[in-house]
Task: inverse folding
């Protein structure tokens, strides 16, 4: 009787594959000398990622990563690493969470946050590479930035909510997005962001 | 898959073989137990037998046993009774519960708080045990109800319910205990605790799901939460679920008769696993207490620093081992276990917590299998982690 119910795994087969066989993992003691390193998230939030990149001829030639997090966070970082290797820095900088989740065959809605951190860590590594080499960052400001890591709330989201009139105060933002209800350390930055948007749009 | 090891018995249990065959013995007894005809009266006799078994199990009066759909409904009913009393103008308007109650109580209490009722949460110590000094400080003659669980589902920590009941009664409040996790693991007596209300669920001690009990000591305030027909003296409407109630009665009988031996066996497996983990895996933290008098015998809650709980759970699952975690990722929210946080555990350690809960069908071979599979999984997850231990 029980055999007649087919249990699906928690995530897609692609997620399972990357979870069981993570690609480009930064192995302990491995001789990998990165040109740039980025780290985002926190252990308190339950997700933290570190990405190291090698860059040659303006392309990501190699990448290693470490992730503290759930299966979808591990799979997202693993998938991100496969996608990013070979990309130009510009392409890699514009890798979006939905590109990663699409490649994984989708993630449950409440797990979207995990993939958000993957591409953010990659961008942080590129930022670090550019800074180390004293290069201008031509991509900065062209992508959304996460302010509340725990709830995956970005500057673009805040901007849209303020513009649409749904958010005027910090409390409004918390109600709409749950921002700063995790570790809470983003509170100040959220306030700044709200005030900046209110200012920009003359509200 | 080499072996299948179910270690999530605090989540739910497999129905005992004795319960299944007992239920099937009454497959044809479909009569409505409220009916006057023969089939109805036979069905009702089975229900009264089960009521007696429940009363024996918890050392209470048959008259106090109200069948419900489970402890969630039982807990909701208790809060509803006191909500009714407050709405009717009672002078006692405050409700106090422990900060580590099951969501069936915590969320109900929070909901009441949102609706404007005066609800407070009594803190616990570092093993998750109720702070009696705090409770003492919190109570006064405006308190209507104090609710403290008998044993915690996540850590297994046994609560000082007898002392808490005495504090509640001294200030004239009623006392409720959610004994869902304790039943079938330790002896629970409503008389010894001096509890006015007690909740339990059949599926936590090898009975069917969807059936449970609210015990309301004869004479305490009662009012229905589910309105409708006159079943259970008008206190819980809805046609009797005959077979589930018979199964619950059988599970109660099994729990009552084999308790001491089962307690010894569960504690032996729990301790073998704890010692094995501590010997084979560096940097582990056991949450709750290792004192047999303070911990439900089958529960072991361990945090693995630098390793996240959902990953551990899923790697274990791929090896056929089923456990649960306090990690946020597994709860569907972004917050890890509030029970562990209330006990003062670091957020990261709550994310990395795994609960192993033993039951009737586990053996020492299961412990050996977990001790073979778990250490390499923890090493693997830690090797992937941004934080090194």
Result:
């Amino acid at each position: 009787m029980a055999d007649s119910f087919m249990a699906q795994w928690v995530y897609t087969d692609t997620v399972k594959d990357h979870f069981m066989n993570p690609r480009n993992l930064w192995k302990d003691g491995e001789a990998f000398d990165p040109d740039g390193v980025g780290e985002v998230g926190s252990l308190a939030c339950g997700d933290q990622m570190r990405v190291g990149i090698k860059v040659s001829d303006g392309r990501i030639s190699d990448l290693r990563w470490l992730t503290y997090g759930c299966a979808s966070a591990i799979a997202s970082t693993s998938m991100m690493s496969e996608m990013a290797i070979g990309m130009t820095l510009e392409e890699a900088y514009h890798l979006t969470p939905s590109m990663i989740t699409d490649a994984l065959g989708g993630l449950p809605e409440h797990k979207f946050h995990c993939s958000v951190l993957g591409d953010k860590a990659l961008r942080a590594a590129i930022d670090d590479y550019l800074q180390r080499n004293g290069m201008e960052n031509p991509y900065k400001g062209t992508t959304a930035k996460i302010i509340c890591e725990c709830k995956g709330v970005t500057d673009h989201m805040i901007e849209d909510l303020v513009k649409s009139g749904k958010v005027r105060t910090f409390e409004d933002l918390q109600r709409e997005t749950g921002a700063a209800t995790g570790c809470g350390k983003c509170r100040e930055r959220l306030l700044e962001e709200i005030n900046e948007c209110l200012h920009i749009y003359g509200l | 898959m080499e072996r299948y090891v179910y270690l999530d018995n605090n989540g739910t249990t497999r129905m005992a073989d004795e319960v299944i065959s007992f239920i099937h013995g009454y497959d044809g007894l479909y009569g409505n137990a409220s009916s006057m005809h023969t089939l109805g009266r036979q069905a009702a006799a089975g229900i009264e037998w089960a009521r007696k078994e429940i009363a024996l199990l918890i050392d209470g009066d048959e008259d106090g046993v109200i069948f419900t759909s489970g402890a969630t409904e039982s807990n909701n009913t208790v809060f509803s009774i006191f909500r009714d009393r407050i709405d009717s103008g009672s002078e006692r308007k405050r409700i106090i519960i422990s900060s580590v109650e099951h969501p069936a109580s915590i969320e109900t209490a929070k909901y009441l708080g949102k609706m404007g009722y005066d609800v407070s949460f009594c803190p616990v110590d570092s093993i998750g045990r109720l702070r009696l000094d705090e409770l003492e400080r919190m109570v006064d003659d405006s308190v209507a109800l104090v609710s403290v669980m008998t044993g915690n589902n996540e850590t297994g920590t046994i609560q000082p319910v007898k002392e808490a009941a005495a504090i509640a009664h001294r200030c004239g409040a009623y006392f409720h205990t959610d004994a869902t996790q304790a039943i079938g693991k330790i002896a629970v007596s409503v008389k010894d605790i001096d509890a006015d209300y007690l909740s339990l669920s059949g599926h936590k001690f090898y009975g069917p799901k969807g059936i449970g009990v609210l015990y309301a000591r004869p004479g305490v305030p009662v009012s229905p939460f589910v309105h409708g027909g006159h079943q259970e003296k008008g206190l819980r409407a809805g046609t009797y679920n005959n077979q589930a109630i018979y199964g619950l009665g059988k599970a109660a009988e099994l729990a009552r008769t084999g308790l001491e031996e089962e307690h010894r066996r569960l504690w032996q497996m729990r301790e073998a696993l704890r010692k094995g983990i501590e010997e084979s895996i560096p940097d582990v933290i056991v949450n709750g207490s290792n004192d047999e008098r303070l911990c439900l015998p089958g529960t072991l809650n361990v945090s693995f620093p630098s390793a996240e709980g959902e990953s551990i759970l899923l790697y274990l699952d791929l090896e056929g081992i089923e456990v649960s975690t306090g990690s946020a990722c597994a709860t569907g929210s972004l917050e890890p276990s509030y029970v562990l946080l209330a006990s003062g555990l670091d957020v990261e350690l709550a994310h990395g917590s795994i609960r192993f809960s033993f039951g009737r069908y586990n053996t020492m071979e299961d412990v050996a299998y977990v001790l073979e599979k778990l250490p390499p999984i923890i090493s693997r997850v830690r090797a992937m982690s941004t934080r090194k231990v």
Observations:
- Residues 10 and 357 of chain B are 6 Å apart (CA to CA).
- Chain B touches chain A at residues 306-311, 314, 318, 327-330, 332-336, 347-348, 351, 383-388 (CB under 8 Å).
- Chain B has two domains: 5-14+259-384, 17-257.
